[in-house]
Amino acid sequence: MLAYIARRLLQAVIVVVGVTLVVFLLIHLLPGGPARAALGPRATKAAIANFNVANGYNRAVPVQYGLYVWHLVHGNLGYSYHYNQSVLSLLEANLPKSALLVGLAFVLSLVVGVPLGLYQAIRRNKFADHAITTFAFAGYAMPNFWAGMLLILAFAISLHVLPAEAPQASSVASILADPRALVLPVVTLALVSFAQFSRFMRSSAIENLVQDYIRTARAKGISNTRVVFRHLLPNSVTPIITLIGLTLPIILSGAIVIEALFNYPGMGYLLWEAALRQDYPLLMGFTIVVGVATVMGSLLADLLYAAVDPRVRYD
Amino acid sequence: MTDRTQVPGVPVVGGGMATLLGTPVVATVVAGPTGAEGGEVTSSGSMVRLFLSVFAENRLALVGAATIVAIVLFCFLGPVLYHTDQVHTNLLTANLPPGGAHPLGTDNVGYDVLGRLMVGGQVALEVGLGAALLSSLLGAAWGAVAGFFGRWIDSVMMRVVDSVYAIPPLLLMLLMVTIFSPTTLMFIIVVAVVSWLPTARLVRGESLSVRTREYIEAARGAGVTSTKVIVRHIIPNVMGTIVVQTTLQVANAILLLAGVSFLGLGTPPPSTSWGAMLNNGLNFIYDGYWWLIYPAGVAIVLTVLAFNFVGDALRDALDVRLQRH
User: Fold this and answer.
1) Distance between CA A164 and CA A262 in Å, rounded?
2) DSSP string of B48-96?
3) Which of A19, A141, A256 is the closest to B167 by Cβ?
4) Looking at the partner chain, which of B159, B169, B258 has a beta carbon nearest the beta carbon of A143?
5) What distance in Å separates residue B156's CA from the closest CA in chain A?
6) Cα(A117)–Cα(A129) distance, integer angstroms
7) Do both B131 and B20 map to the same domain?
């Protein structure tokens, strides 16, 4: 296990370095470089030269990268010129709110997707299976913002039961104080990953259903319920752990659109604003943080999976 | 039997593919005159026919293929038959409900929604197809090279894939869209850059297993260069995966473009796309202008579903081949 952890940890470190390289590369792809990004399109040549000297952008590229990483590990993610705040402080203010949204959506899609997938596997090729498959396919094919618009039309405008806008509050506690307003954003975001979990669970359970241990369990005369919940469920649900790691980038992408649609005051909304206003330092800083978070997420998922299923360690 | 008869553009399929859905095709292949040793199909003509017949067995795939044809005709031939002005605004005809001269109504600046659906679809299809092809090309080349050489080259190349994979696709797109000017070609490149990773991983996995086969060893033993082995032997053998991935990537690319356009960062006006139409429709969601919200959404869903159906059917057809080994 220790060897596996070490190997996986090393891999994660390399990927984190890779993420910083990708973002660093993008900074240099900017027309005019980072100075143009900071000072805007009308900056004079002299101002750009001054900026480059002051920030070390006149040095050799490897040195620049070294400086960039040096700043990053010291918590200096850059400075948002639009908000006139450090990216780190913006992050501290908004990340918890997005984590709440993403976390709730994750839990909801797991709680709905896993049992549905299991049920489908048991009732394979019956009507219920086909119905849920159709629904999951629709979930795949539907742009999440459109699904959100339809939900707003139905529940906020026609039925007047839920607000169309997310809670407009500045802290996690005050957002939680308005749970009704959270329903539509969370449900819409959960739709993104629900289909993946249910489809994955279905095929995983179907694969397990034909295994010998299930047949043995049935042959021993164990009740159907017990076979499903004690044998089938634990064995087919474990691979989902890795899927959670893989779904993270997708659900975070979804969060950007959903926060924009529901006016949810989180990191996704801020990112959207940053993109519209070409606030590069903010965009780049957030990209690094999200990238590192994703790497950590899949690392955790893999380690958890290895702890649950010993076979993985010897790959 | 160290080599396979290869038909350009058609995935390498053994006779086992025909067992899809347990159709009677199986018998004809296994026992038929074309079924050589191990069910290998040696006659190219029968292989194409076999492939088509298996594909045709899957009704969803046919529906999907027909839908794709219909949508392509609608978007590219439609404007020729149904003339609308999608450049000049006309406030006198703004916000008209469906009916009369405007079967799907007009939007807030007087554009005919039906005509706009066609124009918007052109961008979606161009970016979808272009990005899918480009991403497959990139992913296949990357994966094949990594899988073929293995060792440290594989490690380095796959860590690059992991690094880009860690950044959520939409976030990476937002970054690039703000850096480069938003044109159709740029969107094709940007979408391809964020979506070549799954293809690279799949192709790498397959080429890792393909490269250990005897005929590859034989080719290398005969002094064939690495480039030639990859292009002539590895790529044709993973062609099935590539074709499936390309089809599914079209759907994926259309959704990504819709997302970015919905955020107001798509191709600039007067050009439009289905996502941008929905972004505009959102402004009138309280006014009951349903024709600004349903048609564009339905168009996206239909297109994406159609490509998914075809892609899934292709994968089913090829999966059986994989199980055989």
Assistant:
1) 7
2) HHHHHHHHHH-HHHHHHHHHHHHHHHHHHTHHHHS---SSS--GGGTTP
3) A19
4) B258
5) 10
6) 9
7) no
The candidate with the shortest Cα–Cα distance to A29, out of B167, B4, B186, is: B186
Q: CATH no. for residue B157?
A: 1.10.3720.10
Question: What span, in angstroms and rounded, lies between the C-alpha atoms of B325 and B322?
Answer: 6
Model-level pTM greater than 0.80? Answer: yes
φ, ψ at B24 (rounded to 5°)? -65, -15
Contact (CB, 8 A) for B57 and B33: no
* Interface contact B255, partner A, CB < 8 A: yes
Q: How many domains does chain B have?
A: 2
Looking at the structure, tell me whether residues B14 and B144 fall in a common domain: no
- Cβ distance of B168 and A295 shorter than 8 Å: no
Q: How far is CA B240 from the centre of its chain?
A: 13
Length of chain B: 325
Instruction: Provide the strand spans (E) within chain A.
Output: 79-80, 85-86
Question: Can you point out the beta strands (E) in chain B?
Answer: none
User: Which residue out of B60, B157, B167, B260 would a mutagenesis test of the A interface target, given it has the greatest number of A Cβ atoms within 10 Å?
Assistant: B167
Q: Are A271 and A256 in contact (CB under 8 A)?
A: yes
Task: List Cα–Cα distances, A307 to A4, A200, A238, B32, B49, in angstroms.
Answer: 10, 21, 11, 51, 49
| Per-residue pLDDT at B132 | 93
Q: How far apart are CA B123 and CA B269, in angstroms?
A: 12
Residue A247 CA: distances (Å) to CA of A34, A35, A119, A195, B299:
32, 35, 22, 11, 26
CB hemisphere CA count around B124 (13 angstroms)? 36
What are the angstrom distances between the C-alpha of B13 and each of B39, B50, B322?
Answer: 10, 10, 9
Question: Is the same domain home to B7 and B126?
Answer: no
List chain B pLDDT tens, one digit each, 325 residues. Answer: 333 333 333 333 333 333 233 333 333 333 333 333 444 444 556 666 666 776 777 777 888 889 999 999 988 888 888 888 777 777 777 777 787 777 777 887 778 888 888 988 998 999 999 999 999 999 999 988 888 887 888 888 888 898 888 888 888 888 888 888 788 888 999 999 988 988 898 888 888 888 888 888 888 888 888 888 888 888 888 888 888 889 889 998 999 999 898 888 888 877 888 888 888 888 888 887 888 888 888 999 999 989 988 888 887 777 644 444 3
Q: Are residues B33 and B173 in the same domain?
A: no
Question: Could you give the CA distance from residue B146 to residue B166 in angstroms, rounded to a whole number?
Answer: 19
Spell out which residues of chain B touch residue A143, defining contact as CB-CB under 8 Å: 255, 258-259, 262, 275, 278, 297, 300-301
What the block records as the tokens of B52 is 């088509």
User: Do β-strands A79-80 and A85-86 pair in parallel, antiparallel, or remain unpaired?
Assistant: antiparallel
How crowded is the C-beta side of B44, counted as CA atoms within 13 Å? 8
DSSP state of A79: E
- Residues B215 and B275 grouped into a single domain: yes
DSSP-assigned letter for residue A309? -
Say which residues have a Cβ less than 8 Å from residue A18's Cβ, sequence separation at least 6. Answer: B159, B160, B162, B163, B164, B166
User: Domain range spanning residue B24?
Assistant: 2-44
For residue B311, the distance in angstroms to the closest alpha carbon of chain A comes to 13
- Mean pLDDT over A200-221 rounds to 86
Q: Could you give the CA distance from residue A135 to residue A212 in angstroms, rounded to a whole number? A: 32
Distance (Å, rounded) from C-alpha B148 to C-alpha B125?
A: 33
